[in-house]
Design brief:
heterodimer, A: about 625 residues, 6-stranded mixed β-sheet, about 10% helix, B: about 250 residues, mainly beta, 12-stranded antiparallel beta barrel
Chain lengths: ~625, ~250
Amino acid sequence: MKRFTRRDFLQTLAVLGISTGIEALLPAYARPRPRVAAPRRSGRGPVTYDLTIAETPIRIGGRKAKATTINGTVPGPLLRFREGDEVIIRVTNRLKEDTSIHWHGLLVPFDMDGVPGVSFPGIKPGETFTYRFRLRQHGTYWYHSHSGLQEQTGIYGPLIIDPAEEPYPYDREYVIVLSDWTFENPHRVLARLRKYPGYYNFQRRTLANLFEEAREMGFWKALKDRLSWGRMRMGATDIVDITGATYTYLMNGHAPEDNWTALFRPGERVRLRFINAAAGSIFDVRIPGLPMTVIQADGQYVQAVTVDEFRIGIAETYDVIVEPKEEQAYTIFAESMDRSGYARATLAPREGMEGPIPPLRKRPLRTHADMGMVHEGHAGMSHEAMPTHHQEHRMPADTTGHHMHGGHDHHTGHAMMAGMMSGVGQPPGMPPEPQPHGDDTHGPGNAAVPMITRSRLHEPGVGLGEDGWRVLVYTDLKSLHPREDFRPPTREIELHLTGNMERFLWGIDGKTYSEAPEPIRLRYGERVRLVLVNDTMMEHPMHLHGMWMELENGHGRHIPRKHTILVKPAERLSVLITPDEPGPFVFHCHILYHMEMGMFRVFEVSEPETATRTSS
Amino acid sequence: MRRIGVFLLLAALAVLPARQLRAQAQPLVHFMNENTLAFVLFDLLETSPALDGRPLQWDMDAWVGKMYNRLWIRSEGELLTAQRGGEAEFQALYSRVVAPYWDLQVGARFEVAYGEQTRTRAHLALGLEGLAPYWFELEPILFVSQDGDVSASLVASHDLFVTQRLILQPRLEALVAVQEVPEWGVGRGLNRVDFGLRLRFELVREFAPYIGFNWSRLYGGAADLARAEGEATRTSGFVAGVRLWY
């Protein structure tokens, strides 16, 4: 069995190089024609990087653009470390406004976490801030600005920490940073969404496509389904807020037509480290003709699972191994979840080759399952050993339309258990039982509440699972190593992800951060079950800083650890957390525009009780 | 040593009594949702060539504010060249979100009828603005004039997407009054119903030229008053205009 050696590593790093022209505006690992090997740092002292944030003209798909960059490139440079390293990163701000860098997924002291106003004051123009911490983990991560909408304009980059021992050997590796670019000013994008949330949706149901739907499901059914959505004042085509109408989807900073290429020799095991660094886009990733073996999720090794496609929420990372055996080009294809566009790259034995680009699939429609409506086979189901490739039910409205309740309009006919808890007595690791939502609408900040909230960890999600191929689901993720700390929780905190799409209001428990600034208090070292309930009909990639979230997906001690969890509409899921770093850490939706609208909270971890306080 | 400063501050906060802390809790981070936003929509900005003497009509909504509390300015009116006159009304309303899809609005309305002799009157206004099931935009509003006359209006419209950019908008406007106010052409009961059908093409979301047809009819006392003035009680005709917002 091959092991990943230092020599392999140097070979891998042969992809790093210098280039000219436009390519010089891309980080070395993302340039299409790599030539020169970069030296590998060595020694035991702190590993130091200097990062400069500045405004830089770049080209995206042949068009000129102005980006905020890290060391002049989008994405920023690859930062590479080894587990246990001490790290010094000096970040210099050459912008006219404050900036910051947050190390996404890294366990660091709060004052090194990089959230302006919470961790530190931010980096003022002209200032340099020195981040210094010791790495307590390994895996694929990334870093990005936590200031305003800077992440949308280019401040993000990959970060890899090599483990002391590599459990899955490979011959070659590439980082693939997925992101989205808009030539519009992102403040304008947000203003437009606030004025007209459907601004970028050019895939809605129209009179014209009613007739297509009528051919598929019959005229009356098609009409009734629409009326049912209209009655709820919801859109079945509200899949993402911002679409290909303004976004160019990027892989390693390259637009689809740039055809960024990664090379391989047939028979090699190629590791691809996917990072979704987008501000507003969830991607479905596949390499037609090449199965992918997922070995790592959010930087944490998982038991290898081979799939043909996976959905990557904003801020998540997945490492996969592929073994191309033929002398042919493969397309690495990342469709936006709403099918309004794609990012692509090529995996080929030689430069200049191109694989076929698959057509975009039909845009999906939300179903009544996304509204938490009761329908056959779902209410009251149990969650052990779910079939992994469960199909989403396309629910026509005729039987269920009248069950939904929107806003204050009516609350009828089901047992209300507002605020009920599933009990801390439930053994750790199991997904929560389905529960009626209860009467609480969380005020005008929340437009509708689902009738039933339940675990959907075994479902591939909207628009996936019907293509006849294997799709990764959250219940496929099993930690490679068993959890050492698997104490049952002593406390449970339930948070509802809320929103009013008609007004582009987003919050937690119906409130924005500015309306609910009190921190959620955690005791150092305690064990808490955090229950997340998605009251909205959109996915929310929820990210917790400073500690892991152990996703209770039914695999006992092998439940996976994640830093970001894509919560599906009407879903109830739970994670176990053990705060082991004192200080304030934030918890927020990683859709940049949802966070900016207030889907954000502070978790305040107390000092360890044994510590002696000097002030009083 | 900013880090130490932050640490000391947090350490100090940690030892404060919880109640005191709660009172002091305030957002530490500025988010975009706290930014004031301004919006202007000319839902109608049109001319009706078939009805001569009516070169320009408009219906404008604008607001400025944050998430839940906004100042609304509304205006609608028409210029008349034939009689060298016109009518315009302006509303200034405080608007507050009271339910997921509804804003409660309270404020003032000013009416101006100008021509040979210009008249004005003012009202108090109380209304709702929101979205009803099936995507109907509704704007019911109640007025009490400076003379104590009570009236109400309802505007309802719906956007029917024919294609992604071609949108058919049926629009209904109705006026009712409790008292007769002859100098303003107001009769008791249902005064007027306008029904329009406009087909717009969104070149961009903010800019959409349209063509359409408009029916307007006066009823009851209002119709009698119009007849007495020698005016028509029913008008209809093609309209052409542009819907724009920013």
